[in-house]
Hints:
The complex is a heterodimer of chains A (314) and B (256).
Chain A: E1 5-14, E2 17-27, E3 32-36, H1 43-51, E4 58-63, E5 66-67, H2 72-77, E6 79-82, H3 94-104, H4 112-122, H5 138-150, E7 156-160, H6 168-181, E8 186-191, H7 194-200, E9 203-208, E10 211-216, H8 218-224, E11 230-236, H9 239-248, E12 252-259, E13 262-267, H10 274-283, E14 287-294, H11 298-310
Parallel strand pairs in A: 3-8, 3-9, 6-7, 7-8
Antiparallel strand pairs in A: 1-2, 1-4, 4-5, 9-10, 11-13, 11-14, 12-13
Helix pairs in contact in A: 3-4
Chain B: H1 2-17, H2 19-52, H3 62-86, H4 88-96, H5 99-102, H6 109-130, H7 132-141, H8 146-172, H9 177-193, H10 196-200, H11 206-212, H12 214-223, H13 228-250
Helix pairs in contact in B: 1-6, 2-3, 3-8, 3-9, 6-8, 6-13, 8-9, 8-12, 8-13, 12-13
Organism (chain B): Desulfobacca acetoxidans
Transmembrane segments (chain B): 12-37, 66-86, 117-137, 149-170, 177-194, 230-249
Pfam families (chain B): ABC2_membrane_2
Amino acid sequence: MSPMIEVQDLTKFYGPTPAISRLNFEVGRGEIVGFLGPNGAGKTTTLKILAGYFPPTSGTARINGFDCFLESIQARRSLGYLPETVPLYPDLTVTQFLQFAARAKGVESRQEKREIERVIDECGLREVRHTLNGSLSKGFRQRVGLAQALLNRPPLLILDEPTIGLDPSQIVEIRQLIKELAGDHTVILSSHILPEVSQLCQRVIIINRGQIVASDSPENLSRQLGHGSRISLVIKGPPQEIVPVLKALAGVRDVSVTGEDRYLVQGQNGQDLRPELARLVVAHGWQLLELKAQEFTLEEVFLNLVTDEEAPES
Amino acid sequence: MTGVWALIRKELTVYFSTPIFYITGFFFLLLGGYFFYSNTVYYSLLSFQGGQNPQLAPMLNPHQMVFRPLFGTLSIVFIMMVPLLTMRLLAEEKRSGTAELLFTYPLKDWTVIMGKFLAALLVYAFLLLLTIVYAALFASQATLDWGPILTGYLGLLLLGGACLSLGLFASSLTENQIIAAVVAFALLLLFWLIGWQSELGASGMAGLFAALSMLEHFENFIRGVIDTKDLVYFLSFIFFFLFLTKRQLESRRWRG
């Protein structure tokens, strides 16, 4: 079976500047993938191409085995799309709009009613079903957007910034909703909020300036791309002696004093310094009170990757 | 087909839930009623005089004196009204961003265009249907030959279709409803008046201009004549502008 999304050498130019250049990635069936990057990195462009709104300048994107441009109708049948701005017809009520969306998406007329009731329930829209779209709050707009994407049970959901502009309690609700959907659908969602992605997604694709800079699970990214390990120590002993001794240990990049008796050791990549450090401290007769490996947060990884990218230009 | 129907239903819901339809409909019927009234009053005045004037009497014909000029005036009112009915159709989808939903649903471009065009045509036909009251009212008081009246209505329907297809095209060009309305109105006026050249006998182009003119082709219908070349003119006019609209929609696929 082909993967749900296959992207090869995807490039899109707006005028002379590329919004994305030569993206390659795959998303397997049932995966929840986060598309992470700063504003203007090319997330929305990529998702619009996948949704079939416009074609790439070059390269191919396939959904469910169908080319997003050449077999656009078939590809679009397999997806539900929530655009970033959640455009809704202001003069239709929620139910009228969902009826239109259901017919447009080819829901069979016999199942139309049941299908609309299902998404209204799943997205918690019962209380606003007869409200005009134009007078909905931002949180409800987002849910209506999600509801139309869910109609006809598409195997793939493309969600562009699903939680942007919502208040914290709404964000929690929408995230919960997305988590519940994950079982039946493949989900690709974009975000520039890190905790969101690390909470929701099994895999993160980090994109910056139109290029993929990393793609892995949130945990692996934190581990592998953290540029070495960090170990915090609490040692009872004379600091002026401790610092040079720690620095002299092979594999240590830097040592800093972070408080009274507290030290932070930065090691080089892929090396566990903890046994060596423990032995060293004990051998010098100091008291080792605490020894802890610190993982890099995804946030730091992200900043690292993004600033690394920008460095050559400045 | 279900896609076309889905769009028709949606567009009609929007038409009937926004004030623009009611306002244009109200003023259209107000103007139509006024013209019908004044034509009828003039006709009855002449009829009284015709009683004393044997030469005038045979020329008195309700179709020629009431309905033909009425249809002529209604057609002008429609030309002013149609841009108001079509300006929203595609421009608003683009401005509000709903185009992004519409064009990511599994609908072909033709489906979208036909849905929007047919919805506008239904609204137009509905307004047209209301004016049949005039003829019915007239027929209740006098004898009326329904043949040329119905031909006139066929002409108005085809004329409306042509104007709506051009209006839809204008709406596909821009995100701004006002610009869409202005472009549609200007082009419609041009297609209406272009035939005047032939009366001036200005140049060798006169024949071509006359053939392009909506007025020339519409005149036959309200005279009570269905000519194949007029039918072909209006149908190909409609198809041509729907086709241009499709091309314009497709351009999003290759423009940067």
